[in-house]
Amino acid sequence: MRNALAIAKKELNVYFTTPLAYAMFAVMTVFASYFFIAAVKQFLEASMMAMQMPQYVPADRLNLTDFVVAPVVFNTGIIVAMVAPFLSMRLLAEEKRQRTFELLMTAPVRPLEIVMGKYLGGLAIMAVTIGLTMLHPIVLSAFASGSGTGGSGGIEWQTTFAAFGGLFLWSAAAMAIGMFISSLTDSQAVAAIISLMLLLLLWLASWMAGGADGAMREVLTFLSASQHLVNFVKGVFDLKDLTYFLSWIVLAVFLTHRSVEAQRWA
Amino acid sequence: MAAMIEVKGLTKRYRDRAAIDGLSFEVQEGEILGFLGPNGAGKTTTMRILTGFLPATSGTAKVGGFDVFENPIEVKRRIGYLPELPPVYQDMTVRAYLKFVAELKGIARGQLKSEVERVATLTRVVDVLDRVIANLSKGYKQRVGLAQAILGSPPLLILDEPTVGLDPIQIIEVRELIKSLAATGKHTIILSTHILQEVTETCRKVLVINQGKLVDFDTLDGLRARHVDGKQESLEQIYLKLIDPTGELRKKIAPPEPAKIAAVN
Q: Comparing B222 with B72, which gets the higher pLDDT?
């Protein structure tokens, strides 16, 4: 465990001493902020409508959690699919290219510890990346708390945490998949492109489901990460969705371990 | 004295090409072994198998009594390894890098700092400890790689061409460092190099391989006795005899006659 933590710490050290992590923070905050501003604007328009025509838009249905926080977190999901590959690409590919893989593999460290260390480091950087977008509900709560009655107005923190929990699970799955791809090549660019393709496919599988029918439609819907995130975002916690993300994490970490361990047999 | 390294019938094949073929030798504790052979002879492959980085196709290798394949962790605990290219993280400072490697080697938390200082002093990288490795000269990178290998004073040091790319002063420095490590008697050292002078000065035993096969393995004096009739000839003469017994290569590399050069022009 100590070895895994040492590797995780080193990963974070490298992330923060190179511009890569900061560039990804910028990408994440620019898009999330755009989503946030657009959602707040829509909410304002809806509130105006509610005031002018209360018979069409019931004001008590309007709340910031459902109208702003939830859609912003959901939309951020696709940005995660685009940011994660660039954070995961270096995890093992860089070690192979820099020949430091030889250092890790000849140190008294088990392959599982290497993989867990790498993954923990990746998870931490991912947590920071999406943590930055938590600023939005916090800012919102400062202005919106106390207004309205019956939960409308202020932020429902339970739903908000469920939404971010779901987003974190999706990030964790994206990181695990990216790490596995990174373990297969010594080219960071190749690792990033392949992971990006896989994650976008996973996110957009629900679109493809729209054009399919029968069993195919069911399978694609189930495979789609967005379909599982959407429940978390609504504040609905379903074991099925948790299992979905955990399955990807376990599968990808297992495959990465196999891929690193294979070095000892090849 | 116990055997630090026991290699029996070690073979490594890449598809139909054998990188090393039936290699067998033993290295006793405390010996300093010069590992010689032309490029592509299988030196690096042998070292990689000993360190557990690559598996052998057949045959066994033991370090300190532990099989490298069955007990990789025990073997790796006993080895300090400097690969051909120093395995450094370009984006880290020397201090952070050495601390990281020390942690991987399981050096106790309380001793991390003093151990890093110790190897930094030995390899003379103290003045660059807080610089980013990418900005260091080749000589410094090589020495950082060496510092990493001797962290935790492992009983076996495997050094793959430790002086390649260094300037003459640095070569002497590294050679003196290896000699001083050897003098402590705590380390068994395997040193692969192309600088035969280095072997003459630092190693007591010499192992020569060519095309994956063991050519000869003896003390320097033993080699002299058998190949150049005990004359105090340089290792170069012995090496050429071993690698090129028929003399064909030597004919090829002999300087052409002046008349031929003129004809080309």
A: B72
- Minimal Cβ distance to A100: which of B52, B54, B87: B87
What is the arrangement of strands in the sheet containing B156-160, beginning at the earlier edge strand?
A: B79-82, B156-160, B188-192, B32-36, B205-210, B213-219
User: CB count, 10 Å around CB of A230?
Assistant: 18
- Chain A contact for B73 (CB, 8 A cutoff): yes
Considering the entire predicted model, what is its pTM? 0.90
A106 touches chain B (CB under 8 A): yes
Is residue A85 within 8 Å of A195, Cβ to Cβ?
Answer: yes
Nearest Cβ partner of B53 from A6, A106, A108? A106
- Report pLDDT for A149: 46
Q: Give me the mean pLDDT over the B109-138 stretch.
A: 94
A22-61 confidence digits (pLDDT tens): 999 999 999 999 999 999 999 889 888 888 887 777 777 7
Phi, psi (degrees; rounded to nearest 5) at B62:
-125, 140
| Number of CB atoms found within 10 A of residue A264's CB | 15
**Residues with Cβ within 8 Å of residue A242, at least 6 apart in sequence:** A169
CB contact under 8 A, A17 and B92: yes
Please return the burial class of B180, using the count of CB atoms within 10 Å of its CB with bins 0-12, 13-18 and 19+.
exposed
Chain B CB within 8 Å of residue A16 CB: no
